[in-house]
Here is the input.
Amino acid sequence: MKRIKVLIIDDEHLAREIIRSFLQEDDSMEIVGECSNGFEGLKAIQKLNPDLVFLDVMMPKLTGFEMLELLENPPFIIFSTAFDEYAIKAFEKCAIDYLLKPYSKERLKESLRKTKVAISQNESQDQKIQSLSRNVDQKQESLTRVVIKNGAKINIISIDKIRYIEAMDDYVRLYTKEGDFLKQNTMKYYEKSLPVSDFVRIHRSFIVRIKEIARLEAFEKDTYVALLHDSTQLSVSRSGYSRLKQVLGI
Here is the structure.
C-alpha cells in the first residue's frame, strides 16, 4: 500500500506537535503539511491533495466545518477536537473518526486503522462530510455567519447583514446591502438555523429579516406581498401570512 499523505490543521501548536510525533512512528504515513487555521488549510488541501486530514473544529478565521463546506472533493477527515458530546455523536456516525483531546497514542492508532481500511476500500468521503456538516449544523443554537466561496474569493457574511433569502433550486441567494450571494444549501436549513427573533419564512421561496418589512399589502384574494424598506416586494403565502401576523402582532 502506498504511503498515505497527511495534512494537519489545528490552531494549537502543541496539538499539531502531538499528532506529528505519533504519525512519525507509522511508516505508512507521510506528513505533507501543517496549518494553523481554516484559510491556510483550504489552500493546502487544494495544493497538496492529501489523502487524510487531521482537523480541529473551532479555529480562528474559518471553523473546520466552514472549511469543509468550501471543498468540492474533501479528503478523509479525522477530527481532533475538544467539542462537546452532541457533536461527537455526529462525528461517530459520519466522520472516519474523532479524537477527543487529550487522547492517547493508541487511540490515534485506532483512527489510523479505520482510515487505512476506508482508503483500501476506496470509499468516498464527500457524502460523509456533507452529512456530518448537516448533522452538526442542525444542532447549533443559532447560525451566526455564512461562508461562501466565489471563485478564488471567500466571503464571510455575518447573519446581521442578511436582508432576505430567496430559494434558487438547489441553491439559495442571500441578499445584503453590499450585494447578493449564491450558496448551495436549502431553505429548510436556514429556516431552522436563523434566529427566529429576527427572521421569518413568509413563502416557500422567501425568508426575510423582520425589521426589513415596511408593510404588508393585499395582492389578490387572500394573498399579500411584503413591501421592504427599499421597495422590494416579496410574495407572502397563506402560512407565511399567519407567521407574520404572529411575529408582528397584527
Notes: The mean pLDDT is 87. The chain is about 35% helix and 30% strand. The first helix runs from residue 13 to 23. The domain at 145-248 is CATH 2.40.50.1020 (OB fold (Dihydrolipoamide Acetyltransferase, E2P)).
